[in-house]
């Protein structure tokens, strides 16, 4: 399952940390951020650090249990609602 979100502001370390923590709440779900033909593991701080300073359209994909809830939670963080 995939969804798209628009990162209106450049990503900072605090937002990336929130995304990684939220992604790790879903243990039985594989979650990836895709941006500019680069796929990043949403559960890895090292991988997600590539998003620092990035703004624009990105794709979030998830597979496994609770994938819809995982995508919704991550989209809320990207939209600045959490």
Automatic annotation (TrEMBL):
Q: Which SUPFAM superfamilies match?
A: HPr-like
InterPro entries membership? HPr-like, HPr-like_sf
The HPr domain covers 17-77
Tell me where on the tree of life, at the top rank, the source sits. Bacteria
Protein name, entry field: HPr family phosphocarrier protein
